[in-house]
């Protein structure tokens, strides 16, 4: 099946590049509200399901035992930019479990935000695993392991109890069975399982509405949504779309980007879950599609419309700041 | 027309992302040797045609008048990484024409190479227009304007004599007429014209073989090819594909990347020209396709095969250095 073009990049009067993809919007009953492209195809959700991966942290009691704050819970579901406040927060989470950066198995990389990376370089420092965009999730995994009485060492391995708990949460939220044939290794070394786009959307409809989940999970999901809405800087960072739009919409939107053009969201007031994957993995296209979908489903105030619109139709500027083209929704999203 | 999938990104046993595109390989007689996808579609060649844009610099006598070295000619066709040696070289070109960085109209940006950018930040400096990846081309434009007795100011405008000379070279090399309806503004502020992929390939077959060009142009093209082969660091930079593969192949290959997934090349020994565009603009896919095409057409020594193969099938590694997947040619290129 050829997924349709959903985003165009224009330059002057010419369409310069095109992005194809698939989108599913599902309501709390599991019914499809909108679907385009092959939404039955399993895709790696990557970081877009960090909220599901954080459920065992809360449901096990680990978050309460270590007295994790809203910022720290938001960091647990973050793909953060590696700003100093993110790295410090991750270190603090580890300290609450009596651990430190040496426990992290995600690897080190320069902060995702290039300005932050240059500032770090200018300070004479090198990045550590605390700057890894997944350090909050990994610090949470360490907390979970410690709370469960497990040695954190090897917590990224599929057979470690932490990853078994995480996989069970993913299966339960998405109504899938995740076999080893659908398993890959994520950038931060943990397993990632390919899941149909429609099942991911159904999972986020549950996550936002609470429909079909037991009361412990309803409370855990609600706590995560409230934490991210209260501290949206912790889940991404300065100028990042997740942060900018959750600052704008508060608890009306829970949204989370993933690598390779995946995006998931929950719109609790409408009971809707959204999942999308851009075929080629482009972040710019995934962001454009998600912004267009938010504009399609949410009732917007003038201020919200003004805040959202620049992310739906993004002006392309050259190095002199001149307007040379646009990124815009196309086809079924135009 | 749906262009076919030409590159796949795998993770574990699953294809995670897919890139579509079109490729034309044309011989010196203008005959199509290989074609996949819609090669009649006009695409912005962006920086992939810098070699054509540099022809007036040589043909006008400007390169001789200002005594430009091989490195400086290579820089004139470069999309460089903004290393100190690139910025210094651009400043030297401007000085030869009695000008300086203030003449450049390309805008400033941090070096393309993130490590170079961090080093610059660590030194306490900010980037100037000399670090713009197009600074060599722009310095060459300033030389051309000065040599022609024109005020360089406004040399990026379509109606300036420099851009009229550049456009004439593009039309002549590609056998096209470039109307204003096909004009966009490039990242560095000069006009870019959409040109059919097949016409771009034909232009590079001419550029490499000399067939169908007058003697002045044959000499100018030969001089550019020799300059880049002698100083491949100047055309891109450390670890960049153009530099790495032209270091490997010398004058057997002239290749040049462009923004938004365009790549062009000439294989002089075979009289072939190559042009390709990835629909979604992804550099990783354009590089994979170009490497696959070089492997298909060139006769390779064992050392050349060993040097090329890691760019055809690229291993994807996570932050811990573990092999998690691959970028590989697909469909007609598999």
TrEMBL record, chains A, B:
InterPro entries: Asparaginase_II (IPR010349). Pfam families: Asparaginase_II. This is Asparaginase. It comes from Alsobacter metallidurans.
């Amino acid at each position: 099946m050829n997924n349709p073009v959903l985003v165009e990049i224009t330059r002057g009067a010419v369409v310069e590049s095109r992005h194809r993809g698939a989108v599913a919007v599902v309501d709390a009953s599991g019914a499809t509200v909108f679907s385009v492209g092959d939404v039955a195809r399993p895709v790696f959700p990557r970081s877009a399901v960090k909220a599901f991966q954080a459920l065992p942290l809360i449901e096990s009691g680990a978050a309460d035992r270590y007295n994790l704050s809203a910022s720290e819970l938001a960091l647990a579901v973050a793909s953060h930019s590696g700003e100093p406040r993110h790295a410090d927060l991750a270190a603090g989470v580890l300290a609450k479990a009596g651990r430190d950066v040496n426990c992290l198995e995600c690897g080190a990389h320069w902060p995702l935000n290039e300005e932050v990376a240059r500032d770090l370089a200018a300070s004479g420092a090198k990045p550590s695993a605390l700057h890894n965009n997944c350090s909050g999730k990994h610090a949470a995994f360490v907390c979970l392991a410690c709370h469960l009485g497990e040695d954190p060492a090897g917590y990224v391995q599929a057979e470690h109890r932490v990853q078994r708990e995480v996989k069970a949460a993913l299966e339960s939220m998405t109504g899938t069975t995740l076999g080893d044939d659908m398993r890959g290794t994520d950038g931060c070394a943990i397993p990632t399982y390919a899941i149909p786009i429609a099942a991911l959307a159904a999972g986020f409809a549950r996550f936002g509405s609470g429909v079909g989940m037991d009361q412990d999970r309803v409370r855990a999901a609600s706590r995560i949504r409230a934490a991210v809405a209260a501290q949206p800087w912790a889940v991404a960072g300065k100028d990042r779309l997740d942060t900018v739009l959750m600052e704008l919409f508060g608890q009306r939107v829970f949204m989370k980007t993933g690598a390779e053009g995946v995006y998931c969201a929950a719109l609790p007031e409408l009971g809707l879950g959204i999942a999308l994957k851009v075929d080629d993995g482009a972040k710019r296209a995934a962001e454009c599609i998600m912004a267009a979908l938010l504009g399609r489903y949410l009732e917007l105030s003038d201020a919200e419309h003004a805040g959202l619109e620049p992310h739906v139709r993004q002006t392309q500027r050259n190095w002199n700041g001149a307007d040379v083209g646009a990124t815009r929704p196309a086809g079924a999203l135009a």
